[in-house]
Amino acid sequence: MNMTPKPQSAVLHDGQPSKSEQTRETILAAAAQFFCNEGYNAATMRKIAKVANLEAGSIYYHFSSKEDILGEVLELGLRRLYDEASRVLAEAEAQGKNFRQVLTELVDTHLTFLLTESDFTSANIRNFPTLRDDLRQRHRPLRRAYSDLWNEFLTKAQQNGSVRDDIEIRPVRQFVLGALNWTVEWYDTERFSVATLSERVTRLLLDGMAKKEQALVLAPRHGDQQILEPEGGVNKAARTRKQVLSAAARIIRDRGYKAATMRAISTEAGIEAGSIYYHFGSKDEILDEVLDLGLRDLLEGVARTASDREQFPDDLSRIAAAIGTHLECLFQASEFTSANLRIYGQLPKEVRARHWPVRNEYAQLWDRILQDAQDSGSLRSDIRIVPLRQVMLGALNWTVEWFDLEKAGRKGNISLAELTEILQKLLLGGLTK
């Protein structure tokens, strides 16, 4: 299989790519960069041509549409990662490497392609979840093949006793890949190298954050306990306003940031298109409030849990309960939270900047929870708090891409309570026994 970072091209007799193929590769590289940084929905053929430093019309000599370009970018992004992971596993089997060695290499391979090696891979990871189903369909077999590599590796490790046997492999694999994939939202090359990140992530995945001698007393929340403060009585105008915000949240969660037009929001909310302007001056005003509500619901919910020292008197139970609250906000307590986290990577930089103070406040809340636990001796002293928080929240946040609440509890699908317990065990205790 091809391991070059660019698509295979027709070549001249001397083995060099033709001018046409060089231009085609330039377009693909520009598109991958744009999709990675701005999102597929924000892209146009004209914008891609501008990034590629080409005349707008000339791009059509090589690709018929933006969707045509997307197809190749997605294929290349995952194909190279799949090929390299396959090579790592084959080499590991031939050399008899142990589970920890192989996991370290797989994590490093995934993170290297995702963060520094290829805009194609990060473009795939960041855009695939919010694409239309018909655009995703042709790429599902390769994504499934990559998942199968991990499933087979983790299953063998579980069978030989290297991986804990109290959790099914499918959620374990989704937990691992989720923690890795979310790094595209926070990794900074200037802070530390990918090799350093890989080493830290692998240690956390393998051994968890808690000291092994600590008893992991999981503390799921009671079903009748409210995460958020109940709303007081509201008038008709306030109800309509909330209706509009909820509609916008559903659209950006399910279809992406760009899909949330004023017309689409009013249709989803079941109100006349013109009447929406009685409540909001613009689409940006609606989306800003949706994003803000999502973060503030999360901040309020976890802060309430963390402050409940009567129900959660020790540090590990507080962390376990806060993990549960985070997941409940994502899937039940707040439709705004899942909307925010699902489309964060697609947001224009100026939009993200407006919401950074609240995100930072939430990060600091978790840093205090984790630091208290480390200071008391409940958490390992050899892991740094900020990277720990980033990886932990990444694993939790990525669940919006694979956990379906509507299917939860049905045959072959875990419930939200089961998901919560699995993630509590993995984050606190790690993959190993």
Order of helices and strands: HHHHHHHHHHHHHHHHH
What's the domain count? 2
Number of helical regions: 17
What is the CATH architecture annotation of the largest domain? Orthogonal Bundle
Q: Which homologous superfamily in CATH is the superfamily of the largest domain?
A: Tetracycline Repressor, domain 2
Structural class: mainly alpha
Euclidean distance between termini CA atoms: 36 Å
CATH domain topology of the largest domain: Tetracycline Repressor, domain 2
Largest sheet: none
Q: State the total count of DSSP E strands.
A: 0
What does this structure look like?
- This protein has two domains: 19-163, Tetracycline Repressor, domain 2 (Orthogonal Bundle), CATH 1.10.357; 236-429, Tetracycline Repressor, domain 2, CATH 1.10.357.10.
- The longest helix has 30 residues, at 66-95.
- The protein is built from 17 helices and no strands.
- The protein has helices at 19-38, 45-51, 66-95, 99-117, 119-127, 133-137, 140-159, 169-181, 194-207, 236-255, 262-269, 283-306, 315-333, 335-343, 349-375, 385-397, 416-429.
- Helix 9 (194-207) crosses helix 17 (416-429) and helix 12 packs antiparallel against helix 13 (315-333).
Structure summarized in a few sentences:
The chain is mainly α and 433 residues long. It has two domains: 19-163, Orthogonal Bundle (Tetracycline Repressor, domain 2), CATH 1.10.357.10; 236-429, Orthogonal Bundle (Tetracycline Repressor, domain 2), CATH 1.10.357.10. It is built from 17 helices and no strands.
What are the SSEs and their pairings?
Layout: H1 19-38, H2 45-51, H3 66-95, H4 99-117, H5 119-127, H6 133-137, H7 140-159, H8 169-181, H9 194-207, H10 236-255, H11 262-269, H12 283-306, H13 315-333, H14 335-343, H15 349-375, H16 385-397, H17 416-429
Helix pairs in contact: 1-2, 1-3, 1-5, 3-4, 3-5, 3-7, 4-5, 4-9, 7-8, 8-16, 9-17, 10-11, 10-12, 10-14, 12-13, 12-14, 12-15, 13-14, 13-15, 13-17, 15-16
